[in-house]
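Re-run with default settings, no changes from the original entry. Doing this only to confirm the output is reproducible before filing.
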Amino acid sequence: MGFRTARTLRCGGQSALGILAALFLAGPAVAQTVSVSLPSAATITGPGASSPINVTIGSVTDLEAGAIAFVYDSTIVTATAVVSTGTLLAGCTVTPNIVTPGEVIVSFACLTPVNMGGVLFQTTFQGVAPGTSPLTFTTTPEIPNGCSLNEGTLACSPLTNGQVTVAGPTNTPTGVPTGTATATATATITAAPVNTGTATGTVTRTGTSTPTNTLGPSPTASSTSTTTRTGTATGTPADTATRTATRTVTETRTVTPTRPGAIPVVPSPTSPAGLVMVSGLGVALLWALRRLAKPH
């Protein structure tokens, strides 16, 4: 009765509300089964962005009326519209109900039967927050199992649930990082080795005294010294120079003393004094010989 009433209302040009009211009346036994599916991997680019979600139906014959109900997670997405333009229901009267958050109910009645499969209608969803929301057929008092076609003469089988994902924010670099090199100078001081030496010097003085005779009662000796110094320095590298000088002086002097005034010094015969002395001795000798030669 209900399906025949829908056909009569279609032919008589009655309102869509009358068609929907007649849709839910009991009808004859089921003649065929039709698959209805929600999208399995729908995506929305991010919160605030929108995207149409397709509800599809398999190959169908003489589809004249129907109703679909499904739920979603309203904290992830929200339904904003139901679109039938460009779908299988483009020539049908479509009545959507998206007032209740998290629920979509769509009823339709067609003046020209649908005889093919494809996109039954589209629901536009807007992203609320990043995440994934399940899309699940739900049972209402008027729509058993979330789907009713031709007053139940077409069985919705199988019904395939789906999901929609809202992508999270993507960090996009706004500039090219620029590095500024800062040089830090680190001074490393290496001390050059400084000799810490102990100088040991040995000084040997060798003196030779040569007496010089002078005429007179007190000859004076003069001394001539020759000094030879030899030194040896030994050093050990260190950070601070410290030098200790040690000097050892050994003096050796050889002196020939002058004769005392009581002992006359015989000059060399070749020296002027020696010549005077020899001459004097000769004169004295001649004088003595003459004295000896005179008769007494």
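The CA atoms of residues 178 and 184 lie 19 Å apart. The first helix runs from residue 2 to 12.
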